[in-house]
Design goal:
The structure is a homodimer. By secondary structure, chain A is of the alpha+beta class. Chain A has two domains: about 60 residues, Arc Repressor Mutant, subunit A (Orthogonal Bundle), CATH 1.10.10.10; about 140 residues, Chorismate lyase (3-Layer(aba) Sandwich). Chain A has seven helices and ten strands. In chain A, the strands form two sheets. Chain A has a six-stranded antiparallel β-sheet. In chain A, strands 1-3-2 form a three-stranded antiparallel β-sheet, covered by helices on one side. In chain A, strand 2 and strand 3 form a beta hairpin. In chain A, helix 1 packs across helix 3 and helix 2 packs across helix 3. Chain A is elongated, with a radius of gyration of 21 Å. The N and C termini of chain A lie far apart (about 45 Å). At the A-B interface, helix 1, helix 6, strand 7 and strand 10 of A face helix 6, strand 8 and strand 11 of B. Chain A binds a DNA duplex (19 and 19 nucleotides) through helix 3. Chains A, B: This is Histidine utilization repressor. Chains A, B: It comes from Aestuariivirga litoralis. Chains A, B: One of its GO terms (biological process) is L-histidine metabolic process.
DNA sequence: AAGTGGTCTAGACCACCAG
DNA sequence: TGGTGGTCTAGACCACTTT
């Protein structure tokens, strides 16, 4: 299980662990480069790389001549919350159901290995599920999961628990990437979602990272007539908008 | 003007300049670390840092044993941020242009008054703009603006400054609402965006509040083939996700 | 003066890929 | 076999801040 890990990555993990666990609160000073050199028995360049990358990633801030500090974690905006579709539908007072279309192990190909940022990846879990609201298909979920991060993924019966719930319980989500596109459905999608060929769809593509590795890649397809993505949120007090 | 610049930054700038200018197209091999060592008279670690950072920033991709290459820059728009589309396009090294279709004062109707949460609203600013990337329409902006919040809105010439930039400069953004839908284009949209009737589009509807009042309501229409919405963010260190 | 981060060097070893 | 990227070291000089 435990891959050979570069030294700078070990240092980063150690620091992140302390931040995530709450042991090091925002504003707290983290070990200096020289202190890391001693405690990890590494060169200063390696310690520097760990602190520099964590700074670039937004976890730390550095002040020359003073030290390195845990940064306030910015309020997360909510357009793309990881909502559990079953709960979302239940919240609207409707009946949730699902149909499991595919569930199994598939061989990786170069494109999938690239998506998972892991050349060595040989096999992946793959599931396809249709989620229904009052019996009407509203979402087609096509998901690949990294077996090394969630080895027991296929043990679940996804009629009772959604894949999202399983994954959230199994691994922390450190980072999310979303892409939203408009598409016309493939013939298979038309069949599974029971829609016309000219019904436009929203395709939400999402990658989730856990501990610096891609845990799952999913494409969610929504018929336009039955679903829209929505969010509303207050902006952060500092008004931090790009430009 | 010319600040003292670290060596790795000079190397990064040199490479970015070549990418932005189009001299180095996507897929093209960039100089190897050893080649940079020779041409810039730097150490390999410095060359490595430049290439590694540009890779982390999404400009390059590296393949061990093979080389470093200019990455495709897909047209992607951040969902979460209020990005200025002109800067976004410029950032990709492409040419931004726009066509002003409509600009003026319109009477409010009940639906608009409802959207602006202000029954007393009598008139509104209205603009329609087509934004182009390398001369190709990529976004249709249909925007209403609350005159009481941005009285001088129409004084601007939107060929030089985008409406987003004008609004961000004029009022703080306190709250945002987004809805994303997939649509098929109306005939007018087909004409303005120069797309086929069967080209699906993303419709991003956004309301912005400033000081508890709706400042602007905008619908941004993107042809699916030319644009996707994109966001990537780190989750809060404490892992605060809904559900 | 001592400690901090910011940068840089000139080597090194390794895994990987190509011809 | 030679080139590539990936990592690491043990030094170094600098500007800066704190004591």
């Amino acid at each position: 299980m435990s891959e050979a890990q570069p030294l700078y990555a070990k240092v980063k993990d150690h620091i992140l662990e302390n931040i995530r666990s709450g042991a090091w609160e925002a504003g707290r000073r983290v070990p200096s480069e020289n202190e890391l050199v001693e405690s990890f028995r590494i060169s200063r360049m390696t310690a520097n790389r760990a602190l520099r990358e964590l700074t670039a990633e937004g976890f730390l801030s550095r002040v020359p001549g003073v030290g390195t500090f845990v940064k306030e974690s910015p309020a997360l905006s909510s357009l793309m919350e990881l909502r559990n579709i079953a709960e979302e539908i239940a919240q609207r007072g409707h009946r949730y159901s699902s149909r499991l279309i595919r569930k199994g192990l598939v061989d990786a190909n170069p494109a999938l290995a690239e998506e998972f940022e892991d050349r060595a990846l040989k096999q992946l879990f793959h599931i396809v599920i249709v989620h229904e609201e009052n019996g009407v298909p509203v979402q087609l979920e096509d998901r690949h999961v990294n077996p090394s991060l969630v080895p027991d993924f296929l043990d679940h019966d996804f009629t009772e628990t959604t894949p999202t719930a399983v994954l959230l319980a199994a691994t922390p989500v450190d980072e999310l990437e979303h892409t939203v596109e408009a598409t016309l459905p493939t013939t298979e999608q038309q069949r599974l979602l029971n829609i016309a060929a000219l019904e436009p769809c929203l395709a939400l593509y999402r990658r989730s990272w856990s501990r610096a590795r891609v845990a799952t890649v999913v494409t969610l397809t929504y018929p336009a007539s039955r679903y829209a993505l929505y969010s509303r949120h207050r902006t952060n007090a500092r008004g931090t908008f790009s430009q």
